[in-house]
Specification:
The chain is α/β, with parallel strands linked by helices and 332 residues long. Helix content is 46%, strand content 15%. The protein is globular. This is TRAP-type C4-dicarboxylate transport system, substrate-binding protein.
Length: 332
């Protein structure tokens, strides 16, 4: 009887070791600081939901602040190489890889992060977005809230941009900057914007309120003009082989927390945070915040329209994609 009990105990211990060994630790890379809203709240929340739903068969750990790799432009390659299993991606930093995502960059198109994110995912599910999506497990596609014009000197009308060095994160917005007579500056990722402004390398940047806070740009500018200068399309992608090697339960946990549901949750959280950052900036009273009237908005819309027309002309089925994206946002 004692031998039988010892045998049963040994088998139970062995089973426990086997279960523990089967668990997969998934490395989620974010170039944002650990305290940044998306990383601290949205991505960490997603990681916990997946970990809990997997019943311990997968454990998602956030590596923030460039722990696995500091450059935002290298995050996608890190996933491809297996340095990170999952990563937060800004497609604009990897031009040509996901060209379909650029529809979210167009000025005067996206009305909110939730609307833009839900519409982008719907377009992806319909197969209307061009890009190397099949090379990765796509966890989520999103847009930021509409970006504003953040600058050292006051900018009210498009003509005030003439001659300024202005930064944007995407080719489409760089085209808009050039069309307004400013000097388009690319290649400066979010974490470097505040320093570039402080050193006088650029006069301003297109960013939404959340990014203005996360990357401390609010400390470097004095004016914000609230015209909807497009968005930053965003992604979370996973190494495809890593995903396919997971247990069925772990894969189901990821699937249940990805896609359309994640687009909605992300967008809602982003919009709430964006509004909160703006409210704090108003309360602090250190910035001149200008909300344009209808005539000013019309002037900016006219000034940025050539960038949309150029995008439509150079994109296969561009008009159909653009129209479908607008329709997807109004269908909600």
């Amino acid at each position: 009887m004692k031998l039988l009990k010892r045998t049963v105990a040994a088998l139970a211990l062995t089973a426990g070791f086997a279960s523990s060994a089967a668990a997969e630790m998934l490395r989620f890379s974010s170039f944002e600081p650990p305290v940044a809203f998306l990383t601290k709240e949205v991505f960490s929340g997603w990681a916990k939901r997946v970990t809990d739903a997997s019943g311990g068969e997968a454990s998602v750990k956030i590596f923030a602040g460039g722990t696995l790799g500091r450059s935002p432009a290298q995050q996608l390659q890190m996933v491809a190489d297996g340095v990170a299993d999952i990563a937060f991606i800004v497609p604009g930093y990897n031009p040509g890889v996901f060209p379909g995502m650029t529809v979210g960059e167009l000025p005067f198109t996206v009305t909110s992060s939730q609307a833009g994110s839900e519409a982008l995912w719907a377009m992806y599910e319909q197969g209307m977005l061009a890009g190397d999506f099949d090379k990765y497990k796509i966890i989520g596609l999103f847009t930021s809230a509409p970006q504003a014009v953040a600058s050292k000197s006051q900018i009210k009308m498009p003509t005030d941009m003439n001659g300024l060095n202005f930064r944007a994160s995407s080719p489409e917005l760089l085209v808009a900057i050039e069309n307004m007579g400013a000097v388009p500056v690319g290649g400066i990722t979010g974490p470097g914007v505040a320093e570039a402004i402080s050193r006088g390398l650029i006069d301003g940047s297109f960013n939404e309120w959340s990014a203005l806070k996360s990357f401390r740009i609010l400390e470097a500018v004095e004016h914000v003009l609230e015209v909807p200068m497009g968005t930053s399309p965003l992604m979370i992608v996973m190494n495809k082989a890593k995903y396919e090697g997971l247990s069925d339960k772990a894969k189901a946990a990821i699937d249940a927390n990805s896609g359309a549901a994640f687009a909605t949750a992300f967008g809602q959280a982003f919009d709430v945070q964006n509004d909160a950052v703006r409210a704090d900036a108003v309360k602090a009273g250190k910035l001149t915040i200008t909300t344009p009237d209808a005539a000013t908005l019309a002037a900016w819309q006219q000034a940025t329209r050539p960038s949309i027309e150029q995008w439509i002309a150079k994109t296969e089925n561009g008009q159909a994609i653009y129209d479908a994206y607008l329709a997807a946002m109004t269908a909600k």
